[in-house]
């Protein structure tokens, strides 16, 4: 049998519920999807619980499961994924924090958790921090720029621990917090001390910078601190190539997802004008996906964040539009590589527009293969029709299904 | 409630996909199945993933699961199952190899991996080897005849390991391989040495035999070596009677499956003219099944290999015919024991005719019970209709379902 290449297409937060504004339809039901529905005729379809029924997945835990690694075993926190996604090279034992450039007043009370969110000087501020703060108490410190106000902070050295609390109070009008050991170990105590000294250094470097002086002059909130949260230890993950034999590439503009993919040893591409938002350049992503599928990769993973972003904003029309653009992306890819390809389309979790947060609802899944199979004969790809399909799966099943239907699976036993 | 006897009927490789030659129908759809469809009206039905969705099962791992033992825990390789199926008595720690009588030239290059496949002298050759080679370096050696060119080889002794590589190069025109230790242990090193000395002895015994001299005179390839592969350690498995309370008997002509059943402590019967092929005597198997059901057995497992054999040959009409014969077998059994019996019919995996290999597709399953239950009202037992049924199960569920619907289950809890 021919071994097909694989497109794994994940729309972040795809799953939804009936929306009043859409006359009781879900965004998938409301969206026009000629390309998806065309391959649906030869597809398996159904519902997937990314982790387990009812468990509300994060995008990181869900993607780990979809890529075949049980998050109960492999997930250690999102900090190191974000740092990897932001370009960090991490070694076993490094401690990564998620950070925000933020604004505090002279009493260390948080005025703006995002320093105005749009921070045109983020690049310069990160460079400044890396120049001025290279180590604290013998611990190496590195800063990596994320999107908008986000920055990853990585500590490298002996005897560090991720069992330290956040300096981020997670609310405005509250004082920043002192990091504390979350367990009775020397490592945790020492790491908390390093984090607190680091925070003092960051405040003094940023407060003294001309960039912030200019921001204040222009009436903008100064980025005078990096709030830290979610310490996580970097541990090496198994590599996709080793446990599936698949050479994998990823197309994504979302740091967290890029970090997961880098952790799995995948080649990660962020096409020009791909933003991880509703303003992303879908067709640039499609073009890069086609290019990678024509190269030496067996599996190309295409991640679209816009569906989730629209959901968090409670914007149903924007989510419908994102799905319609995804359908166009599928059309472009089929035009580019032909239909001799296995395609799995799903979401990593539901983010219902009326909830604006991730939920543990199952998400629709469809699996197209060029081979002759008994398809599920759904008339449309959406949450309601998916109930009639034969797939009732969890995220951990997906890699096995892809290997099977692309004729790449090894027999278990004789 | 009455405790019913149980017929567990497994058609090897039953599951399939739409076949062009059958106008897009699967063999199950194309086959005439009056007896199965008659009991289907009072049956549960649906789809089963023998291991997990997408995992491509071997017949051994799948049967372990169907009999209620998780292969991830209990499966150690097929060698010991085949040896047991060929009649070996194995003790904990014995090392079993799968072997082929094969033909090599004077440079130890494999000319025919099956010594012509049909080997009428196999019985005599096995007897010769058992007479001439009883031990190597203090390790006891036994040979057991399998079907056609197949032979199981068992090593018994202290300090042996299954971590040794094959002598079988798995291809013609290649030299036979020297066995090597696959881990750094004295046991593995010693076992590899024994295997290599054993191979030298086998070659000299077989080359000198008059049987091979006569084969050469008749223009046939001499069976002058036994190629060894798939070393596996025999470990005792839990017994079906202990973990289900069911006294079990098996009707099968396939060494691998007979070995699995013997491992579980079942009584194994191979009726006359049952071949494990498409030429098997179905009605002889049916008669023996009826006989065993009338005896003191609670569960009789009837295994039919013909469906898988037809699939591996890519022969759709042969597979349709095999299914129609299985339907007749069901009719005979119902005639013989009446309808006061629980019947589960399924496959151990899919072997689609157009793929010719096992795949990880789910397989249809039906469960008939004489008691009044809410049935699934399928109009026909096949892959397409099975999607409408209520069963969405894995192999490990089957024993529990059989115990429940035969009124033999014990309550879990109070």
UniProtKB/TrEMBL annotation, chains A, B:
Keyword list, A-Z: Coiled coil, Glycolysis, Isomerase
Cited Pfam families: Metalloenzyme (PF01676), PhosphMutase (PF10143)
UniProt-listed Enzyme Commission number(s): 5.4.2.12
Pathway: Carbohydrate degradation; glycolysis; pyruvate from D-glyceraldehyde 3-phosphate: step 3/5
Keyword Isomerase: yes
Record field: transmembrane: none
Catalytic activity: (2R)-2-phosphoglycerate = (2R)-3-phosphoglycerate
InterPro entries listed in its UniProt record: Alkaline_phosphatase_core_sf, ApgAM_prokaryotes, Metalloenzyme, Pglycerate_mutase_ApgM
GO process annotations (BP): glycolytic process
GO molecular function: metal ion binding; phosphoglycerate mutase activity
Function: Catalyzes the interconversion of 2-phosphoglycerate and 3-phosphoglycerate.
Family to which this protein belongs: Belongs to the BPG-independent phosphoglycerate mutase family. A-PGAM subfamily.
The name this protein goes by in its record: 2,3-bisphosphoglycerate-independent phosphoglycerate mutase
UniProt source species: Metallosphaera yellowstonensis MK1
The gene coding this protein: apgM
């Amino acid at each position: 049998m021919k071994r097909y290449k694989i497109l794994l297409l994940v729309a972040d937060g795809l799953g939804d519920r009936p929306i009043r504004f859409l006359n009781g339809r879900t965004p998938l039901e409301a969206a026009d999807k000629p390309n998806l529905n065309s391959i649906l005729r030869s597809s398996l379809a159904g519902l997937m619980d990314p982790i387990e029924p009812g468990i509300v997945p994060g995008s990181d835990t869900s993607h780990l499961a979809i890529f075949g690694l049980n998050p109960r075993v492999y997930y250690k926190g999102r900090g190191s994924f974000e740092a990897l996604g932001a370009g960090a090279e991490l070694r076993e034992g490094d401690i990564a924090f998620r950070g925000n450039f933020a604004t505090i007043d002279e009493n260390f009370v948080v005025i703006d958790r995002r320093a105005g969110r749009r921070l045109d000087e983020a690049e310069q501020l990160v460079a400044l921090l890396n120049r001025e703060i290279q180590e604290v108490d013998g611990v190496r410190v590195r800063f990596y720029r994320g999107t908008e106000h986000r920055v990853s902070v990585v500590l490298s050295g002996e005897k560090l621990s991720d069992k330290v609390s956040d300096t981020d109070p997670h609310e405005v009008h509250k004082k920043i917090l002192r990091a504390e050991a979350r367990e009775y170990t020397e490592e945790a105590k020492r790491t908390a001390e390093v984090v607190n000294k680091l925070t003092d250094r960051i405040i003094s470097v940023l407060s003294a910078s001309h960039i912030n002086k200019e921001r204040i002059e222009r009436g903008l909130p100064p980025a005078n601190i990096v709030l830290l949260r979610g310490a996580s230890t970097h541990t090496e993950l198994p590599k996709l190539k080793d446990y599936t034999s698949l050479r994998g590439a990823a197309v994504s503009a979302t740091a967290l997802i890029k970090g997961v993919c880098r952790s799995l040893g995948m080649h990660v591409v962020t096409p020009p004008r791909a933003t991880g938002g509703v303003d992303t350049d879908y067709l640039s992503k499609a073009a890069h996906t086609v290019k990678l599928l024509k190269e030496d990769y067996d599996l190309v993973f295409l991640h679209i964040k816009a569906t989730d972003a629209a959901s968090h904003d409670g914007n149903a029309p924007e989510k419908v539009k994102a799905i319609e653009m995804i359908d166009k992306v599928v059309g472009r890819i089929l035009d580019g590589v032909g239909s001799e390809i296995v395609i799995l389309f799903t979401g990593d979790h539901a983010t219902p527009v009326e909830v604006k947060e991730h939920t543990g609802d199952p998400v629709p899944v469809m699996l197209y293969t060029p081979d002759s199979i008994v398809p599920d004969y759904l008339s449309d790809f959406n949450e309601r029709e998916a109930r009639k399909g034969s797939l009732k799966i969890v995220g951990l099943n997906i890699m096995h299904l892809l290997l099977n239907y692309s004729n790449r699976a090894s027999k278990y036993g004789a």
